[in-house]
Amino acid sequence: MNSYNLTLPLSKEILATLRAGDACMLTGTLYALRDAGHIRLLAELEERGNLPYGLVGQTLFYAGPTPEAAGRPFGAIGPTTASRMDFAAPELYRAGIVATLGKGQRSKEVVDACRETSSVYFIATGGAAAFLAKCVETSATLAYDDLGTEALRRIEVVDFPVFVGIDVLGNDVYARD
Amino acid sequence: MSEKRLTASMVADAVYRAIPTLAQVLPDDVRAALVSARAEETHPRAHVVLDHLVENFALAECDRVPLCQDTGVVWVCLELGSDVAVGGDIFSEVDAAVARAFDEARLRTSLVRDAAFDRSNTGNNTPAFCEIRTTPKRCGARLHLMLKGGGSDNASRVVMLTPSAGHQGVIDEVVNCVRAKAVNACAPVIIGVGIGSTFDKVAALAKHALMRPLDEAAPDEQTAALEAELLSAVNATAIGAGGLGGVTTALAVKVNTAPCHIAALPLAINMGCSAMRRASIELI
């Protein structure tokens, strides 16, 4: 298990050096989006033919935060179960998303898409959302405001702790022999 | 004999007052279990996850922020002794109390209007899901509350086993469920198991098992032995904290059993996450 401090957005060169199980601290921009927002984003992608909101080259964080609290943008924010976004992830990786961040296992289709597009799936600790919210400096809602917690948000994080779940070779940290 | 009188506003007031603390303060028994799991863990990644979870509950209480961004659906069980009189719709004021508490404590609203036909957010985390239990004891009234997250409830299941599946069938089904789903349920999990009754009631048995403190074994020896056997089988999977390996996949397994039909062996597994937010409150 190697440890890295990484700056977002992540280049394909940096992503290629990561291996499943590595520990990383992320600093920079993440885009928070989950269930209902993915249906909207796929529809926009279909209509325009490319990713809106400057998402090309960016990292999607599967999360729906609680409101502002304790002087921070969110009282709590943490990863939701990533497999619910498996229906959209391969298409979004192919459209230019370079990494996703959530918790739990992904489908074979997502593993294949990571390998094919040299992209990565990160995991963060579920149920530690007060702790993770301390890593968030700012938040701006970009779209789908009517979805409430499921809106698309651009957030700035500092030293946000993750592990590499699936690497560019398709290695899966959850795989059991 | 004199009767105690319980009103809708007494129930709603207790719900309103309990919600912020439920969302922000992890119960002592769960804290102790996480601290002890961390002390026993040698797997490096699982140790990091347990560090995060221990730091998380300390921070959430100190800053009065939610333990988890999924502040859950509100589950309310009113337990009534035979010495309590209840008039009218005892839960009629609960939704208003939930809406007010979620707004004031800045919790997430996580409910949609209809599972099948209208998945727009209700905007105030209502409705709450309420039930009543009666007991022949003259013991007043108490309220059992849980904020239940979606990820762990999604990892739950009800299975109608055949009687021949027996003891081993129950063990296998629980272990299979853990293998398939514990990673998504924010392990180390707390597992509520219901065995018996009917299709609709067995899930409630499992849910109520989650209310029991982690350091309290089942009152009868047979059930306590089954709980220990299940915990050992679940932890032998080595799925571990965060699903990243390690010795503690579950902090506890709690079992409730009941009579059932001669043809049946109903089994329910209600997965609880490590941010187990529950409380029992004496009302009168």
Characterization of the model:
The complex is a heterodimer of chains A (177) and B (284). Chain A has helices at 12-17, 35-48, 89-95, 108-117, 129-133; strands at residues 3-7, 23-32, 59-61, 99-102, 120-123, 136-143, 152-166. Chain A has 177 residues and is α/β, with parallel strands linked by helices. In chain A, β3, α3 and β4 form a beta-alpha-beta unit. The longest helix of chain A has 14 residues, at 35-48. Chain A is globular. In chain A, 53% of the residues are buried. With 284 residues, chain B is an alpha/beta fold. Chain B has a domain at 150-274. Chain B has helices spanning 8-24, 28-40, 44-63, 94-104, 150-154, 166-181, 199-209, 221-235, and strands at 4-6, 73-80, 84-86, 112-114, 118-121, 129-134, 141-148, 157-161, 189-197, 250-260, 265-272, 277-282. In chain B, the strands form 4 sheets. In chain B, strands 6-2-7-12 form a 4-stranded mixed beta sheet. Chain B has a 4-stranded mixed beta sheet with strand order 8-11-9-10. In chain B, a hairpin with a 3-residue loop joins β4 and β5. The relative contact order of chain B is 0.21. The model of chain B has no long low-confidence stretch (mean pLDDT 97). At the A-B interface, α5 of A face α3 and α5 of B.
Brief write-up:
Chain A has 177 residues and is of the alpha/beta class. Chain A is 24% helix and 28% strand.
Sequence-ordered SSE layout with sheet pairings:
The complex is a heterodimer of chains A (177) and B (284).
Chain A: E1 3-7, H1 12-17, E2 23-32, H2 35-48, E3 59-61, H3 89-95, E4 99-102, H4 108-117, E5 120-123, H5 129-133, E6 136-143, E7 152-166
Parallel strand pairs in A: 1-2, 2-3, 3-4, 4-5
Antiparallel strand pairs in A: 2-7, 5-7, 6-7
Chain B: E1 4-6, H1 8-24, H2 28-40, H3 44-63, E2 73-80, E3 84-86, H4 94-104, E4 112-114, E5 118-121, E6 129-134, E7 141-148, H5 150-154, E8 157-161, H6 166-181, E9 189-197, H7 199-209, H8 221-235, E10 250-260, E11 265-272, E12 277-282
Parallel strand pairs in B: 1-3, 2-6, 9-10
Antiparallel strand pairs in B: 2-7, 4-5, 7-12, 8-11, 9-11
